[in-house]
Amino acid sequence: MYPDVVGLRSFYAQPIGVVTRRLVGRAIRARAGNMRGLSVLGMGYATPYLGMFREECERALAFMPGAQGVTRWPSAAPTLAALVDETELPLRAGMIDRVIAVHLLEMTPDAGEVLREVWRVLAPGGRLICVVPSRRGVWARTENNPFGHGRPFSRTQITDLLRGALFTPVGWDEALYMPPVPRNWFLRSAVAWERVGATLALPFAGVHVVEATKQVYKPVPTKRRARLTVFEPVMAPQPMGG
């Protein structure tokens, strides 16, 4: 079940949400690369992370699921956010270059169907960057943050989910190594937690940040058929008439 958009907005307005945005945003930025001239779609509640691309990309949109609710984005410009059914996006096939999905796959009742719809709207060569809670992380076990709701994933589970929707994972990052303790004195150590966790490749990061490419062709297994020998009738030679 999706968390309410009011609760999501409130979380990101708090000090712990500000730190979360900075750390997760850094991992998304590293995976995204150059966005200049691209069409970017944020799905779920991705607006805290879309702002860094808005001046760079050609077009940025934010689609929020109906069960979650929608909030105005950006706040000081014509709105680019819309309330949608995440399994039936109001876009033509192949018109989006990058999709950034945050607070989406762990919340939706059918993540596979959502990913198939994302596949449809992505252009050939398009990429998906998704942020999902890690099954091993402390954040998925604590309800004081949005990543503590819904279904967490292991690496194997999110890989299988992506491949089932014709995506190929091509890059991984982790973020939020620090526990979700909303104390200002503790939050000041967040960068140190992140450096130590990334350097030692510790297994208890709060989220996976996965980059995946759209497969254009689906491999179809073929069955070998037994070859049948077919004998065609042959006319018997006839004597020539005089």
UniProtKB/TrEMBL annotation:
<dbReference type="InterPro" id="IPR013216">
    <property type="entry name" value="Methyltransf_11"/>
</dbReference>
<dbReference type="Pfam" id="PF08241">
    <property type="entry name" value="Methyltransf_11"/>
</dbReference>
<keyword id="KW-0808">Transferase</keyword>
<keyword id="KW-0489">Methyltransferase</keyword>
<dbReference type="GO" id="GO:0008757">
    <property type="term" value="F:S-adenosylmethionine-dependent methyltransferase activity"/>
</dbReference>
<protein>
    <submittedName>
        <fullName>Class I SAM-dependent methyltransferase</fullName>
    </submittedName>
</protein>
<feature type="domain" description="Methyltransferase type 11">
    <location>
        <begin position="84"/>
        <end position="130"/>
    </location>
</feature>
<dbReference type="InterPro" id="IPR029063">
    <property type="entry name" value="SAM-dependent_MTases_sf"/>
</dbReference>
<dbReference type="GO" id="GO:0032259">
    <property type="term" value="P:methylation"/>
</dbReference>
